[in-house]
Amino acid sequence: MKVTEKDVAYVADLANLELSADERTRMVRDLNSILGHVDSLSELDTKDVQPMAQISDRYGVDESKKGSERFAYASRDDVKEGLRTSFPTDVALANAPDADGTFFKVPKVIER
Amino acid sequence: MDLTGLTIDSARSAVAERKTTATALAEAFYAKIEADDPKIGAYLILSKERGLAKASEIDRLAEKGDKLPPLAGMPVGIKDVLVTKGIRTTAGSKILGNYVPPYDCTAVTRLEAAGAVVLGKLNCDEFAMGSSNENSAFKPVHNPRDLSRVPGGSSGGSAAAVAADIAIATLGSDTGGSIRQPASFCGVVGLKPTYGRVSRYGLIAFASSLDHIGPFGKTVKDAAIMLRTIAGRDPMDSTSAEVPVPDYVAELDKPVKGMKIGVAKEYFGEGLDAEVRNGVEAAIQRLAKRGCEIVEVSLPHTKYAIPAYYLVATAEASSNLARFDGVRYGFRAKDVRSLSDMYRRTRDQGFGAEVKRRIMLGTYALSAGYYDAYYLKAQRVRTLLTRDFEDAFKRVDVIVAPTSPTAAFKLGEKVDDPLAMYLADIYTVTANLAGIPGISIPVGVTKEKLPIGMQIFGKHFAESTILRVANAYEKAA
Questions:
Q1: Does the CB of A9 have a partner CB in chain B at under 8 Å?
Q2: Domain coordinates of chain A in residue numbers?
Q3: What H or E segment, with its residue span, contains residue B383?
Q4: In the predicted model, is pLDDT for residue A81 greater than 80?
Q5: What's the gap in Å between the CA of B114 and the closest CA on chain A?
């Protein structure tokens, strides 16, 4: 599978990146180089192997239970007031590039 | 007294016995940072006000004759991917160049609660993505052992600071080797704990199922002291494990005689530098002399680790880094036409080349039509790689291997070849995929006086065991 300029433009769009013409050319080269190496995975027959998304799948689980019960160690009762107090609005907004004291401000959403 | 040359063990005693003060210690480190760091580049920002306030708090306790906490007055540095309340935290990225977090990372909270003095924030590859620290948006780090060479990455600043005596110990993060490889390049001890051993709350996420926080120290004992402080369940991180934290320090000197040390042939194959191989083999012989039994084991899927890792890591990264959109924090591009234009330009201008490359690779691996062939395939291979370790650990207590196929390379040497850079992680990534603990310790130098590192892997939550073996090697030196 060769990655083309068109693929790069499509994926950049999904990732909310624009990329300059130079960056796109380099990205085609780099992705093909890396994916060329990655293709070795197809040598392995994995049809009977379960995918592993998390290490905690491997330990701590109570195998005698079903579903999410197996991960009971990671559960706790609800804490009504939260584990920590929520930030006041001014603290939450302090790092915002643009805010009006109550809300984050962003450029207009609808493009003409 | 050479204050900056002390280990935690000796400096803690000096403070407790009133031979020095926490303030004198902090000031000595700040003076050495000012003198030496311009040529190294380990620190991005100093937190003098907070550090000196903590030091004087410790000194007041000492004057009153109160019992001092375990890290009383110990001057530490923190990798800049761990958030610190009121102290700018950038993750080495322009996109977070002006970010001042409103909260502290749990690991930092625990260090300070134990009396540690935070000197400042340490340079790293942008969002911890890199193996040479050359991806920092601010400046590269130079290896204190040879300034023309890289310190490794991504926790290059954390390793270099310990090697250069400009922090007594430091915290780093390790997603594919980012603690162990720089520890190896700089000739210090670096420990990646078991996944879930240390809370990730307050760690700026790169790949959540692979990210770990861990310590750097001058000695194995210092690494054990640091780990003991930061380990343990944290309700703020649901993946932190409810597993009791042993006293790693008390268990260090237990005998290693009769212990089974696995050596996997897959870690000594093509691509391994001859001097590194000789150094690691000599270290294995030294463990044999201490009464350990050396057993050959096989980790047959090792050659698939890099491809599997770079798919899983980049897929998770593409998702985690979606939050950097110029709305709530960080950099926002100027002169934009619309919201979507703002997102794109902010990310285009805010992220560096390697971060964009990984977002692109991860997005590609997750995109419709490729998900099964790439992401799902990599997750299945992750199971195979984890089973390799599980099978091997039925026969041995620990597995030893080189940390990196070569000693530190030159700045600029691999910067234009991302695949060559990725292959520098060939011996470290599997421990992240499997979540097992690994420690890198210095085991000698090459003819050019560059440090060689050896890794010791253990079973899940067997940090005590790998620390014990590491300590036995160090003591035999």
A1: no
A2: 5-40
A3: helix B377-392
A4: no
A5: 21
